[in-house]
Amino acid sequence: MELAERFLLGGIIVSAFAVVGDVLRPKGFAGLFGAAPSVALATLTLTLLTEGKQYAALEARSMIAGAIAFLAYALACVYLTARRHLRTGPTTVALLFVWGIFAFGLWSIFLR
Amino acid sequence: MRIRIDIASLKQTRWHDYLTRFLLGGAITVATGLIAKHFGPVIGGLFLAFPAIFPAGATLIEKHERDKKRRAGIPHTIRGRLAAALDARGAAMGTIALAAFGLFVWKLLPLYNAAVILTAALAGWLALAILIWRVRKLHVYSSVTRPRR
Known about the structure:
By secondary structure, chain A is an all-alpha fold. Chain A contains six helices and one strand; from the N terminus they run H-E-H-H-H-H-H. Chain B is built from five helices and one strand; from the N terminus they run βααααα.
């Protein structure tokens, strides 16, 4: 039941931010919503209800490392699509490993 | 450049695109919860900023732009990729505000009302993201319009 609630809440919040991003112009501004705290809001809300504030605060601290990794990922996407003109779909999926390297690299240095 | 709302752009998006983003959003939220349960909140928290739906959104933007050019009689274009790159650049700016969101929640959540902190963090994310975008625009235009000597 908890998983179903999590799925539903996550889906609704993420979709809502995506729709806002779709209708905003110019495109560069709408892109900001690609890094909206949608998953964070859904997860933190449910975590607060089940695990409490300290647990949620710890998740939020790690989120900073995740956001820095997202920055590295997004910059890599800009470089490969704008400069190298690689196809967006495969490139943005393949580059998710960049996020992993940075996120777990920062975790092993600062959070472990 | 003014920020505006273009409701008509929703017509370009098909129902399965919305479904894809809903499913991805739900899946990453479930995955984040399961990861936190098995590996703890420190590892699980990393995934609060995982770019789960970014590839789907960027691919959609490329497709819309490519289709628009095809309808205009231009079959081969890199315009779609450039539009996706613009979206990624916006997301890169948004990540700075995302990190600030995390910092705000980390420091203040244990001290104050949770609903107030999450609402304030969201408002702060939006305000900071807009500020970064505006500063970046000013920088771009000032360097472009600067007279050559």
